[in-house]
């Protein structure tokens, strides 16, 4: 009887029926078929009159019920996924919002249960991105696609699914491009950017999708593709660091600072504290110490995690030369018209310059295009100057870059302009010449270096940086007084030896050796490891000498006392070197004499110190095989050298900057003069970071201290305080006391008026 009563409730209680079907599908098949036939009837009514359908809640429950238990009856529900796909594709514009969301959720559930494939689900919901007018529905579809691809590529890449989705994105971009370009391709760019940021897609096909978006006919799609190549790698790196727990905020830095250090980090941090203990203590140095320690520990924490080789999107392009030419001709040339604003043109200009600098392309019309924007009155002129610097490399003909440098020198570097303008011009010229030193004439270079005596600090530093650049690259182009002692001596030595080198267009300098190897050699000398190697070498040489000696007793036993000698050689039969040829001994003497003479000859060279260091490094590379422990120690020494730069204000910021990008703000140089209110407030707030503000009442009570007279008076008995003047008030005052208080008040008022 109880079972019959429960069975009577099943048609109206779908949740209970769902639970029973999962437990015993065979016993409740008839009840399921009743609900399925009811669903089919409701679907026919909905298809016939979508706008007049009112039984939405019951239909939602039936869809959810069938999606949950369809795996129990696969033969009866094989048409269910296609029914949902047909409802969604044909009637999504008139369906209620709740019903559309339920259908998408049911399709996702069917995909998770293996009823339909991921490719089929994407084919169903992807076209709805561009056909629906509901922002909420588009957002749901977009979120579903991202979640689906993330789940499919969680443990391993799904190349078949990724390729099918990328094909759909290519088709969407091509179909929306043309004479009347539609912004439908914006969804393709948005989805690709999100998948790249999450490190789900990182292959060249993804870069090609965004390349096609950057060449699209619609302005919004073009800007989406351009901004992808400019900033998505920074977003991906930030997301990866956040996922690993390496955020740049102060909380995570403090947490990492409180963690235990590795064996390699302890001596470095101890050295920092030792230097801080010797030098004068100040709040600024203490904060600098904490920042350096946080940066070092964060680097050590990230070094222990498995790294993933991620290439920047701009490096994965298939045809960068064709892409740069088409992008420049379609968006920046005169034939493109004025459909882009100035900010959008700056973004495109930045991307084209990055392409030219990274891949060393040749787009000669780009430099002539920049000339009209290189004036101090141009809005956002530093962005154009940064683009000019980024687009320079050693394979650009000097004749193409010379007009740019001449225009910057004429417009920005002169006595009649402000110091900030001159500093920006000199810094831009230095950035261009760093990449192509042959792009300037010697006369113009010497004129620019004369600004090293400017009263403005930023101009003076920019001119000196230009001098420092050419001292190491081409000192012969500088004036004699600006070459410096070392460069002049090197030039004289090279001229005397007939080996004078000049910069040549198209010739690259090959770097030889291991960077920082001299640090390892210096550390080995400090630890005394070279002495051990010398002792081992001396022992080996002694063994070689013993090998030359002839054991007479053995020879007599073997050859009956006879020794084979050559008639044309003289032998020394003394006890010291029996059996050794005199020629070899004389050769050794000559070698020892040469080795004795080498230091004297080396001291006479003008660059003795540098030559000695190079000889030591070359000797180390030629005579010793570096073990993994040596490379680990070399990394520690490099880290220590970088930390010293951070503490002593070295050029760590310039060294850490990407070579293929130039910061427009850095071209302005160090700012001098009086700061405005915003900068002063920023400095004040920066100084308040480690300080605590607020009432000290609670803090004072928490510490042991003596009480004041007022506090003591509050705790006294009232009989003891009744005679006090403050308790009695004005009524008990005498006439004389009232006169005194009034006179004191009048005198006080007169004094305050005199001050004002």
General description of the model:
The structure is a single chain. Helix 12 packs antiparallel against helix 13 (219-244) and helix 15 (266-278) runs antiparallel to helix 16. With 756 residues, the chain is mainly alpha-helical. The chain has 38 helices and two strands. Among the domains are: 254-313, no CATH class; 319-506, Leucine-rich Repeat Variant (Alpha Horseshoe), CATH 1.25.10; 517-555 and 564-655, no CATH class; 709-756. It has helices at residues 2-9, 14-23, 29-48, 56-69, 80-91, 97-112, 118-125, 128-131, 135-152, 159-176, 185-197, 204-214, 219-244, 250-258, 266-278, 283-303, 320-331, 342-359, 365-370, 381-390, 398-412, 419-435, 442-449, 457-473, 485-497, 517-527, 529-548, 552-559, 582-604, 608-623, 628-647, 652-656, 677-687, 697-702, 709-715, 718-721, 725-728, 735-755, and strands at 571-572, 580-581. A hairpin with a 7-residue loop joins strand 1 and strand 2. The protein is extended. A two-stranded antiparallel sheet has the order 1-2. 65% of the residues lie in helices and 1% in strands. The N and C termini lie far apart (103 Å).
């Amino acid at each position: 009887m109880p079972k019959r009563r429960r069975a009577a409730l099943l048609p109206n209680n779908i949740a209970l029926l769902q639970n029973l079907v999962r437990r015993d599908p065979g016993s409740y098949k008839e009840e399921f078929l009743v609900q399925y036939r009811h669903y089919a009837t409701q679907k026919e009514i909905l298809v016939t009159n979508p706008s007049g359908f009112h039984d939405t809640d019951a239909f939602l429950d039936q869809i959810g019920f069938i999606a949950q238990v369809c795996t129990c009856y696969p033969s009866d529900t094989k048409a269910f996924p296609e029914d949902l796909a047909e409802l969604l594709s044909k009637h999504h514009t008139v369906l209620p919002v709740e019903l559309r969301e339920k259908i998408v959720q049911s399709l996702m559930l069917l995909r998770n249960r293996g009823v339909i494939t991921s490719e089929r689900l994407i084919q169903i919901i992807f076209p709805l991105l561009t056909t629906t007018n509901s922002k909420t529905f588009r957002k749901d579809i977009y979120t579903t696609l991202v979640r689906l691809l993330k789940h499919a590529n969680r443990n391993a890449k799904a190349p078949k699914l990724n390729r099918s989705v990328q094909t759909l994105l290519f088709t969407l971009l091509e179909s929306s491009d043309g004479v009347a370009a539609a912004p439908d391709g914006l969804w393709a760019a948005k989805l690709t950017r999100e998948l790249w940021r999450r490190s789900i897609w990182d292959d060249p096909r993804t870069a090609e999708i965004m390349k096609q978006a950057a060449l699209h006919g619609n302005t919004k799609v073009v800007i989406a593709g351009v901004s992808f190549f400019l900033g998505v790698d920074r977003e991906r790196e930030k997301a990866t660091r956040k996922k690993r727990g390496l955020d740049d905020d102060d909380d995570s830095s403090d947490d990492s600072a409180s963690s235990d250090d590795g064996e390699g980090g302890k001596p470095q941090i101890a050295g920092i504290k030792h230097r801080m203990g010797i030098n004068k203590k100040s709040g600024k140095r203490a904060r600098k110490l904490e920042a350096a320690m946080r940066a070092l520990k964060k680097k050590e924490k990230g070094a222990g995690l498995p790294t993933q080789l991620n290439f920047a999107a701009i490096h994965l392009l298939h045809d960068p030369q064709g892409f740069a030419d088409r992008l420049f001709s379609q968006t920046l040339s005169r034939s493109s018209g004025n459909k882009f604003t100035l900010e959008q043109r700056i973004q495109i200009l930045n991307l084209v310059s990055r392409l030219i600098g990274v891949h060393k392309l040749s787009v000669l019309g780009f430099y002539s295009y920049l000339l009209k924007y290189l004036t101090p009155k141009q809005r956002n002129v530093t962005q154009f100057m940064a683009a000019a610097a980024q687009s320079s490399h050693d394979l650009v003909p000097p004749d193409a870059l010379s007009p740019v440098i001449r225009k910057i020198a004429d417009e920005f570097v002169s006595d009649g302009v402000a110091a900030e303008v001159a500093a920006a011009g000199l810094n831009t010229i230095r950035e261009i010449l760093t990449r192509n030193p042959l792009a300037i004439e010697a006369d113009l270079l010497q004129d620019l270096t004369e600004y090293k005596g400017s009263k403005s600090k930023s101009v003076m530093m920019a001119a000196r940086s230009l001098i420092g650049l050419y001292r190491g690259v081409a000192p012969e182009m500088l004036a004699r007084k600006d070459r410096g002692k070392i460069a002049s001596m090197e030039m004289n030595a090279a001229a005397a030896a007939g080996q004078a080198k000049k910069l040549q267009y198209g010739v690259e300098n090959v770097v030889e050796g291991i960077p920082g190897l001299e640090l390892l050699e210096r550390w080995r000398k400090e630890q005394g490891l070279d002495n051990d190697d010398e002792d081992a070498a001396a022992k080996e040489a002694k063994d070689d000498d013993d090998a030359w000696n002839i054991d007479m007793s053995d020879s007599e036993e073997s050859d009956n006392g006879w020794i084979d000698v050559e008639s044309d050689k003289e032998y020394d039969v003394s006890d010291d070197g029996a059996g050794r040829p005199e020629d070899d001994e004389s050769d050794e003497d000559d070698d020892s004499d040469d080795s004795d003479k080498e230091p004297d000859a080396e001291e006479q060279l003008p660059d003795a110190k540098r030559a000695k260091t190079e000889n030591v490094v070359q000797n180390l590379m030629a005579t010793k095989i570096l073990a993994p422990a040596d490379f680990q120690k070399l990394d520690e020494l490099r880290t220590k050298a970088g930390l010293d730069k951070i503490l002593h204000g070295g050029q760590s910021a310039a060294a850490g900057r990407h070579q293929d990008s130039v910061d427009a703000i850095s071209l302005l140089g160090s700012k001098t003069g009086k700061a405005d209110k915003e900068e002063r407030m920023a400095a004040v707030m920066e100084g308040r970071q480690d300080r605590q503000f607020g009432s000290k009442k609670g803090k004072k009570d928490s510490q042991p201290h003596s009480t004041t007279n007022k506090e003591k008076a509050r705790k006294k008995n009232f009989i003891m305080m009744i005679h006090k003047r403050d308790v009695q008030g004005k009524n008990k005052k005498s006439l004389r006391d009232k006169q005194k208080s009034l006179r004191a008040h009048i005198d006080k008022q007169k004094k305050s008026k005199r001050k004002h």
